[in-house]
């Protein structure tokens, strides 16, 4: 039984913010949902993938975010309800489609969920995607907790149909990954099929159409501002006795602000903006006029703050507005109660006992590492053996980015999805050092192929190693176009990576099993001697999946013979398998963690490691 | 309001443990808000989850405000002490996952005595539990996390009754339900002996 689907109307169920978004979409009668997985958005798609068949909806893991957006947009333009979800940087990929989709608008409700990641818990930057609402000119909803994720997503479909625009629902890690009680409604199946009604004067954005549609968009935005002023998601909270001090806030920052104010037993008012773009001017003006000092508390960029200051100037309001421009709150990293409590003190002289406690000093750090039996570990070991540390490494987005640290140090440059292939060409052009690009299988499908075509066409010389672990591992093992299984609702066809590589015109292609260290090392050496771009596919299933599939079965484990072990440290300092550690002065392999991959056995110079049943 | 701060290493089943606690709270008719760690940190990094039982807005627990620190690994217990103060009960598994900086001899891994001393310096009480041993005895060697939930329930600090916890265990473990309930009971017995003796 899946609680997402089975929970009846009116019941309270514990859901992750992301699952609440998925439930809301089902209740709103979504017909088509798409995604490309990315933390912290992944569980929206994962939940829908699980229930798609039973719910009678179409769900797909698309090749990348722009394809996901285009597919869902066209469905909504046809008249059904559609949703796409992605992490913040995914919207950079989808932006080209979204910017013009704002011009065409939509007939069926369309919701785009973007999950930002303040503090870069699992991301390469902490960009603030509320700017996309400003840039594209689209209404923006910002939930603060799972219940609001549910309510706002559901309402976003209605709002979208009312103003005929796509709606952006923006979460953050501390909204998407918060689990809390959600009182759900009824799942009402929506319309699944529509006859496409042609309207090229709206949907074919040649210049003559685009010029007119921009004017329409501005009208729709002005209509949206009226709706924002009346929205039930824009609420004033009176804390204690209220008073002449106020806070304007949104998203997770609201949670910290109200907690900090309650801990401090403060008397103030909080204007919480859930429908924050277009800015509800009338509401904000009223709030400013009834308060003497107003602090704006928002994570990341001073977007509300800038808009509130502009409004005050425009309406000649003299209320003191304070925020990031005054150094009240930081522009980088996520907030917590202590950060906002500090701001309450600075802004209003309100003291509380919330403060940041120091972490004990000199504790060994525990950064994330490649798992026991990870095939990437084996590939990286072979690459270092083959290159002797002389190569430059263009890395990409995935678990394998963790190669940046010791002992592998197999990442020298990393920008975004697919960047390894493009940047490797640039590195090779201006350097005489050997260049190796690493890309995962899912990332290759997502954004690696154009770079490879470019490298072949323009004659760039580097070795591209496709780390093919048969899944999108980092985000929770979602399928990709090379997979042979997909979401519950659809029949899928597996696309061959090697056939794509060959079709791109690559002359030297080899496929190796990274668990075979000698062959992999030899293949890397050979690949680097080629005069054009060469491709090595290091293919071995993700160790976590392999372990799951073998659950309960007796698998081969590695053991270290302490009589033979010379404590040379090769297995730890060069391989760094987390199953191997020095416990009580003896090198041991944790049998619950060992995957039996035998790579440590192959690299041990004194043959102290042996496989055992 | 009861704040439970869960700490450990990615892969130890901390999210499952926090879900059991959350479900138990709902079954017992209480409100709860939890934060989870997903994504990159799950790959063997330090992981923190929270469960705030009662009416609250943010799922994060301010430093020093935890009622219980429930730590699944000894080094992570040390790191989690920022959440503790004189009102806090610290429950630490004696499981050790030695990070590479320790194996390569650069840094020191704390002994149980050091963890106990550091915890007692800030917290009201400290309990250590050999959760791996208890899980093995229960017949589910990988259920240290369920032993830990039992230990939390046994303290009586959460105001959630044992049956609600057991129902939540049943709802969240896919296999070997009986063995997991035994594992829960073993954790429960350790702390209930200490905290409910009087």
Topology at a glance:
The complex is a heterodimer of chains A (613) and B (198).
Chain A: H1 3-6, E1 12-16, H2 17-27, E2 32-35, H3 42-55, E3 58-61, H4 65-78, E4 82-87, H5 88-104, E5 110-116, H6 130-136, E6 140-141, H7 146-163, E7 167-172, H8 173-176, E8 178-183, H9 200-203, H10 207-230, E9 234-239, E10 245-249, H11 251-263, E11 268-273, E12 275-277, H12 281-289, E13 293-297, H13 303-314, E14 320-322, H14 337-348, H15 375-387, E15 392-394, H16 419-430, E16 435-440, H17 441-458, E17 463-468, H18 497-503, E18 508-512, H19 517-528, E19 534-539, H20 543-549, E20 557-560, H21 570-575, E21 580-583, E22 586-589, H22 599-603, E23 609-612
Parallel strand pairs in A: 2-3, 2-4, 4-5, 5-7, 6-7, 10-11, 10-13, 13-14, 15-16, 16-17, 17-19, 18-19
Antiparallel strand pairs in A: 1-8, 6-12, 9-11, 20-23, 21-22
Helix pairs in contact in A: 2-3, 2-7, 4-5, 5-10, 11-14, 15-19, 16-17
Chain B: E1 2-9, H1 14-27, E2 32-35, E3 46-53, E4 68-71, H2 74-80, E5 89-93, H3 100-103, H4 112-122, E6 125-129, H5 131-138, H6 144-155, H7 162-172, H8 177-195
Parallel strand pairs in B: 1-4, 4-5, 5-6
Antiparallel strand pairs in B: 1-3, 2-3
